[in-house]
Amino acid sequence: MTARLRPMRLADLRAVLVLEEELFAPDTWTAAMYRDELARTDTRHYLVAEDDDRLVGYAGLIAYDDEAHVATIGVATDRQGEGIGAALLDALLAEADRRRSPVVLLEVRADNEVAQGLYRRRGFTEIGRRRGYYQPSGADAVVMRREKVHG
Questions:
Q1: Can you tell me the distance from the alpha carbon of 29 to that of 82, in angstroms, rounded to the nearest whole number?
Q2: Which of 57, 47, 66 shows the shortest CA–CA distance to 7?
Q3: Distance of alpha carbon 108 from its chain centroid, rounded?
Q4: What does the alpha-carbon distance between residue 79 and residue 56 come to, in Å, rounded to a whole number?
Q5: Annotated active-site residue in 34, 119, 134, 147
Q6: Rounded to the nearest 5°, which phi and psi values hold at 85?
Q7: How many CB atoms lie within 10 A of CB 38?
Q8: Does residue 67 have an active-site annotation?
Q9: Using H for helix, E for strand and C for coil, what is the string for 86-142?
Q10: Are 58 and 88 in contact (CB under 8 A)?
C-alpha cells in the first residue's frame, strides 16, 4: 500500500463526498453529517488515506466507554484490493483498543461480500441483520461485532 493515513480535516470533505457518491449512492452521507462528526472530537476518530495529493480512502470510528462503532469506511473503486481498506480498519481498531472499547460494532451492506470478508479476518462475527437499513435504497445490513480479547 502506498497511501498514507492521517486525520480527516474539514478541507477534505469535498474529496470525501466525491468518494461517498462514487461508492455509496444513493445512501450517501451529507457534508453536514461529516461536519457534525468531525466536531465531536471527544468520541470520534476520522481518517483519510492519501496517495500523493489524491484522497483514496476514508474511515470513521465512534467510540464510547462501553463500545465503539465503525461508522464508515470507503476506498476509491480504482484502488480497492491494495490493502487501503484493511489499513484504515486496522487504524480504527487500534484507536478502539487505545480507548479500551471492549466491543466494536459495525453494519455492512448484505451484498458487500468483500467487506464482510475483511471484517471476518479482523475478528468480527455476524450477530444480526437490519432489514432496509440503508436509506433511501432499502438495502439490508449485516451487523457484525468484535470483542476485545484480553490477555
A1: 24
A2: 47
A3: 9
A4: 7
A5: 119
A6: -60, -40
A7: 17
A8: no
A9: HHHHHHHHHHHHHCCCCEEEEEEECCCHHHHHHHHHCCCEEEEEECCCCCCCCCCEE
A10: yes
Confidence at residue 135, expressed as pLDDT on a 0 to 100 scale: 86
Which amino acid, residue 42? D
Q: Which of 55, 34, 56, 54 is nearest to 46 (CA)?
A: 34
Residue 99 has pLDDT above 60, yes or no: yes
107 is catalytic: yes
CA distance 34 to 46: 9
Averaged pLDDT for residues 129-140: 90
Q: Which is catalytic among the residues 50, 107, 113, 133? A: 107
Beta-carbon contacts of residue 148 (< 8 Å; ≥ 6 apart): 96, 97, 100, 101, 102, 103, 104
